[in-house]
């Protein structure tokens, strides 16, 4: 059983929902990332999605685009991101780490070398935004052989046939994108999300985590109620941008944001 | 590799691959739209009514066929092979881009989409899109890098006059690649009612297929005109390559004609060895960007590299996947010329033939002159004059230190 599966199974048995924060590695500075990851765990994170910065993040809105630009200004490379995870693992052997990013930096490293490096660093899952399962037939076996979970996106536009096919290629969880748009945009329609996630649950036994549009305790609770977990990204990254000058204040601000979400999720009737 | 009609018909394959290249590397939200577009296009491709409307628009709105012109004086001055010019610059809106926007706008109408988006570099594709949208009464949004807006201001104003909204893109390098990123972002958010008219043979499947099909009219006409005027096929075709739409349109109908040498000319910028260029086929390596696997300019960590070219339309770090395939199988030659050589080509064609090419096209002109000079007098070289140069007068004037 992978670390991700284990954590999600335990949560399910406890009747709790997963809180999955996203930050971009190297933002605001590579030296701060490991510390911020521990802060996220202390504030209640069950799984961390760690963004691998890319020069052309097509699926992201301005907030995460700028985070990528900040990280790349300091030369954050995929190699360094793996080193950050390895350092994180020195103090935390329990929290699953999912690398989230775009295909090109992974291909540039070499898929096999990347898969080896990810396992060696203690990474648990890989989510490649611009890699649909149709194009993953070369890389998927590399991940499977190393017990790395391949996490794919589902969207409001995904047809039933594709939901089934994508779920078959996935392990750990599936990531449901709550609305049509880029990260950080738009307002989430909780009723629509509830209906769509319920439908996805009919088609796959995998846990369904929902991202895009979750910005506070209220939206976290509303979405947590109808799914297995919530992914929180842009609002955290925006907080990093606004507090980048003061590392201690930044940690406090991230905690202050996540704590109420954790409490709201844990107050949901199980 | 000897290419046959059967081999070409099988490409791209069902997943949109040209050999190792192409494909559909997009976020999940767009997948269904791309599947729908592919399905509908494959249906309409064989629909006589759709094709007849496309041909009618090319004839009466664009002004096709465009002439194949014998550049007699340039040939004499060069002192080698005969140089012929395929005059895409004479199309309505002044470039080859309109062939494709006519086709895609018809698709948009057949699919019932009321809102159109496009990316543009030099502004030629943006103008061509705004033009067809004006004619069909479609809402038009064009994404253009802030840097390109500065250097192609006449085209920006043309788009606005045509009723398009021009969105200034301030992310990344503020050029064509970033405009394409923002167009993709808009499309994800508005996928239900929006048709994305991509201007080049890149992007996710089926775009490289349909742009190539719509642009292939260039090569089909050239083939017939050359046979008619010279009694034989050309010996060499020369076209500039940014994303590669005018080149693929020219090359495609000649791919099985082994005797016809194909030359795609990339932007060498300040010189390939300086790193300041936009020549992924000459100096890049395969990677994934904007929905397809293709040759790219990137650093050792897989970050897309900044590009440089005097011409905004070639200032792009990727290239259409079919070109990547043609490079690997050795069917086409990909070469580059520098900014300075392209400017010489621009001045030469302007002064010797009275035809002012776009700076993009000037790259093909510069290379073709060198090529023709090395060939016998009985050989025929055709240059695709993909666009006219009026839009570049400000750039050239700045280089000359003149205020216009």
Automatic annotation (TrEMBL), chain A:
Amino-acid biosynthesis found in the keyword field: yes
Pathway(s) annotated for this protein in UniProt: Amino-acid biosynthesis; L-tryptophan biosynthesis; L-tryptophan from chorismate: step 5/5
UniProt GO molecular function: tryptophan synthase activity
Reaction(s) catalysed by this chain's protein: (1S,2R)-1-C-(indol-3-yl)glycerol 3-phosphate + L-serine = D-glyceraldehyde 3-phosphate + L-tryptophan + H2O
Pfam families linked: Trp_syntA
Keyword NAD: no
InterPro entries: Aldolase_TIM, RibuloseP-bd_barrel, Trp_synthase_alpha_AS, Trp_synthase_suA
Residues annotated as the enzyme's active site: 49 (proton acceptor), 60 (proton acceptor)
EC number: 4.2.1.20
SUPFAM superfamilies: Ribulose-phoshate binding barrel
Keywords linked to the UniProt accession: Amino-acid biosynthesis, Aromatic amino acid biosynthesis, Lyase, Tryptophan biosynthesis
Domain of life where this protein originates: Bacteria
CC annotations in GO: cytosol
NCBIfam families on file: trpA
Function: The alpha subunit is responsible for the aldol cleavage of indoleglycerol phosphate to indole and glyceraldehyde 3-phosphate.
PANTHER family: TRYPTOPHAN SYNTHASE ALPHA CHAIN, CHLOROPLASTIC, TRYPTOPHAN SYNTHASE, ALPHA CHAIN
Subunit description: Tetramer of two alpha and two beta chains.
Stated family: Belongs to the TrpA family.
Name of the protein in its database record: Tryptophan synthase alpha chain
Source organism: Marinobacter orientalis
């Amino acid at each position: 059983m992978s670390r991700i599966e284990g954590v999600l199974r335990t949560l399910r048995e406890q009747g709790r929902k997963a809180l999955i924060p996203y930050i971009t590695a190297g933002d605001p500075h590579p030296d701060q990332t490991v510390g911020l990851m521990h802060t996220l765990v202390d504030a209640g994170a069950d799984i961390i999605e760690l963004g691998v910065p890319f020069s052309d993040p097509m699926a992201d809105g301005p907030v995460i685009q700028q985070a990528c630009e900040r990280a790349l200004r300091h030369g954050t490379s995929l190699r360094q991101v793996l080193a950050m995870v390895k350092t994180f693992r020195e103090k935390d052997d329990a929290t699953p780490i999912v690398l989230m990013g775009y295909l090109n930096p992974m291909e540039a490293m070499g898929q096999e070398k990347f898969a080896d490096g990810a396992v060696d660093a203690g990474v648990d899952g890989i989510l490649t935004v611009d890699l649909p399962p149709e194009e993953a037939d070369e890389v998927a076996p590399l991940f499977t052989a190393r017990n790395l979970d391949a996490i794919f996106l589902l969207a409001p536009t995904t047809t039933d046939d594709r939901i089934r096919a994508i779920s078959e290629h996935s392990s750990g969880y599936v990531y449901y994108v709550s609305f049509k748009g880029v990260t950080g945009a738009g307002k989430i329609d909780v009723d629509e999300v509830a209906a769509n996630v319920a439908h996805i649950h009919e088609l796959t036994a995998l846990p369904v985590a929902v991202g895009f549009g979750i910005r506070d305790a209220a939206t976290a609770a509303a979405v947590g109620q109808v799914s297995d977990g919530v992914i929180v990204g842009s609002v955290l990254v925006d907080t990093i941008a606004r507090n980048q000058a003061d590392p201690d204040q930044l940690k406090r601000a991230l905690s202050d944001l996540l704590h109420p979400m954790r409490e709201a999720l844990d107050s949901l009737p199980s | 590799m000897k290419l046959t009609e059967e081999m070409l018909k099988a490409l791209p394959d069902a997943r949109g691959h040209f050999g190792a290249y192409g494909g559909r590397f997009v976020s999940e939200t767009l997948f269904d739209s791309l599947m729908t577009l592919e399905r509908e296009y494959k249906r309409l491709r064989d629909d006589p009514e759709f094709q007849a409307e496309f041909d009618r628009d090319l004839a009466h709105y664009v002004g096709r066929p465009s002439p194949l012109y014998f550049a007699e004086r340039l040939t004499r001055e060069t002192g080698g092979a005969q140089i012929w010019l395929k005059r895409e610059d004479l199309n309505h809106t002044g470039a080859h881009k309109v062939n494709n926007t006519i086709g895609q706008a018809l698709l948009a109408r057949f699919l019932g989409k009321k809102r159109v988006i496009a990316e543009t570099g030099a502004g030629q594709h943006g103008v061509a899109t705004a033009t067809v949208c004006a004619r069909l009464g479609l809402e038009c949004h064009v994404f253009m890098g802030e840097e390109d807006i500065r250097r192609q201001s006449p085209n920006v104003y043309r788009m606005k006059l045509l009723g398009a909204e021009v969105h200034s893109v301030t992310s990344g390098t503020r050029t064509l690649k970033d405009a394409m990123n923002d167009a993709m972002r808009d499309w994800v958010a508005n996928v239900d009612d929006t048709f994305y008219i991509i201007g080049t043979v890149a992007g996710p499947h089926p775009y490289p297929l349909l742009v190539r099909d719509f642009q292939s009219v260039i090569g089909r006409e050239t083939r017939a005109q050359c046979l008619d005027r010279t009694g034989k096929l050309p010996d060499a075709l020369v076209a500039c390559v940014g994303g590669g739409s005018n080149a693929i349109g020219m090359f495609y109908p000649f791919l099985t004609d082994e005797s016809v040498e194909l030359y795609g000319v990339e932007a060498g910028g300040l010189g390939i060895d300086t790193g300041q260029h936009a020549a992924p086929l000459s100096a890049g390596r395969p990677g994934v960007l904007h929905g397809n696997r293709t040759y790219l300019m990137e650093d050792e960590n897989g970050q897309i590299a900044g590009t440089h070219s005097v011409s905004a339309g070639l200032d792009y770090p990727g290239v259409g996947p079919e070109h990547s395939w043609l490079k690997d199988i050795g069917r086409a030659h990909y070469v580059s010329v520098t900014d300075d050589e392209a400017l010489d080509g621009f001045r030469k064609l302007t002064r010797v033939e009275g035809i002012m090419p776009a700076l993009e096209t000037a790259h093909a002109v510069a290379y073709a002159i060198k090529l023709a000079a090395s060939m016998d007098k009985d050989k025929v070289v055709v240059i695709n004059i993909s666009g006219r140069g009026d839009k570049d007068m400000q750039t050239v004037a700045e280089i000359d230190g003149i205020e216009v």
